[in-house]
Fold this sequence. Notes:
heterodimer, A: Rossmann fold, 10 helices, B: alpha/beta, Conserved hypothetical protein from pyrococcus furiosus pfu- 392566-001, ParB domain, Arc Repressor Mutant, subunit A, five-stranded mixed beta sheet, elongated, binds magnesium ion
Amino acid sequence: xxxxxxxxxxxxxxxxxxxxxxxxxxxxxxxxxVLALDMDPQANxxxxxxxMEIDPYQQEGRIPPLxxxxxxxxxxDRDWDGRSSIAGIFFGxxxxxxxxxxxxxxxxxxxxxxxxxxxxxxxEEVVQKVYDQLSKFLTLDDVKNSYDKIIIDTPxxxxxxxxxxxxxxxxxxxxxIMEPQPIEGIYGMIHLWKSETLRRPENRPLNLLGVLPNSYxxxxxxxxxxxxxxKNEMPDYVLESKIGRRxxxxxxxxxxxxxxxxxxxxxxxxxxxxxxxACQEIDERMNANV
Amino acid sequence: MSKKRFTIxxxxxxxxxxxxxxxxxxxxxxxxxxxxxxxxxxxxxxPRKLSIHxxxxxxxxxxxxxxxxxxxxxxxxxxxxxxxxKRVGVRNAIEVYKEGQKYRIISxxxxxxxxxxxxxxxxxxxxxxxxxxxxxxYMQWVENINRQDxxxxxxxxxxxxxxxxxxxxxxxxxxxxxxxxxxxxxxSHAYRxxxxxxxxxxxxxxVRAGKLNNLKIVQELVSMKDKGAREQIISWISSxxxxxxxxxxxxxxxxxxxxxxxxxSLGKVNNSNIAKYLMDIVLSDARFNKHQHKFNNxxxxxxxxxxxxxxxxxxxxxxxxxxxxx
Lengths: 290, 326
Ligand SMILES: Nc1ncnc2c1ncn2[C@@H]1O[C@H](COP(=O)(O)OP(=O)(O)O)[C@@H](O)[C@H]1O
Ligand SMILES: [Mg+2]
């Protein structure tokens, strides 16, 4: 089982877009069993596959919908409110993934207020627990035996939740726009990767897939110059493939988009082609040891 | 018109390069696992020996124990450490290696004991390959050398263990330069440790007895040219009751041929006239009358002033007479 974490502490660089692409690639194109995890309180990733609800206690917050298996009349579900999120792992709750419109894709969605709570812990011993929680969950036999790929979308931060993701991951992907601000975010992530690399035993390395250029504008020079410059500093860790800036990605993000996945577009669609190319390159770079 | 080109800021660029470089060369360096306390044992030969045993730590100390004071102090220090472990956990993994059925501690014995005190079941530990004798002593040395509460006696034991191990594994004597490189300290500091290593048995006995606890004094003694004076000082230190913290007083007298003579008390008088009489007689002597001017301002009604004047007078006489002898 591979665990791909999509990270960058800058927002709006394409983490969620990339997470979607990977989740859909492995489930639709490769027909693998995929579990998507949304660790971002903003819940954008969850929103693509579930009808997230507004948190009655927090205007901005989102909570998962009632689970399809939930039966309020069953004595079995007496102690459960019928909603399950990946944030539950930080609070000792069970996680019940939700099914999606894609047969082999399931998702453990976000829960805004719970994730914000986990992110805000400061007491040292609690922080340490948060750090290890996700990797404990993902090494459960139930989880390991049920999925081929875990795709994790993360919040734009370097806080405890992101660290827990990095600790659990087998592979790290850093989407970024080729502009100064997002490139600084790359630096932050490379640092996290380094700390984790030092911390891991040698037989379980954290594979850095590299930087995936997103919203790439082939006409101007600013993206090309930054791409070349970055490639020069870290030649092994900048992908060849690039995701262009296209309306279609923003559209696919809208509710009721048709078709719902980029992989359901006609084969000769350029966006679909560039995405497939990127996914193939990522797949080739996957951690072979796991 | 040439187009503007963009690049990554130079410090960001070098930051990226260095971070990646460092990740690939230091992979796995900080890895640790939680290890059961019961699987771990202290190194019986760790020079940093605590006075206190595990049982005493758990069951309390016996007040009639001759080492009660030391043990009590060690226990208090362990309690302090336990308190901080309770708050933030063991921050740095202890270092262990496999020895038989157990994992033996390379460094972190105090963290281990404090965790036991707290009733912890496990502790973060990094498993090292079994170090050779020299590397083991060296790692303990590195851990010990910066400790404030480590006595010179303990440092000496560690240093000797390290030097002996070096001798065994490298078939060569450890020298000053090596100490400097190994320990990463200044050359003057390394020289002091080197002096400690070379010190003869009599000096080492003083270190072991706790009478010398200062590396600088050891260096002074070892490098003292005047062997007679050195022997004299060493025997003075051995007969001193407590720790000697400075050689200053000893050095001023030890180098002189005449060893400190017993001072003679000239007694007391109640009648200030006697004092004045004596003073006049002495100062009228041909050898001393050139010093008369120093004694013009005595207040003969004040005992304090007279006593002071006599001290000065005796000093003058002693100088005058000793220069006469020489
Ligand atoms: N390649 C692209 N072309 C056009 N729009 C994009 C592209 N990638 C992302 N977007 C849009 O940019 C916004 C931010 O992207 P998102 O993936 O949510 O970033 P992040 O998760 O890093 O915050 C979204 O509205 C998304 O639809
Ligand atoms: Mg996002």
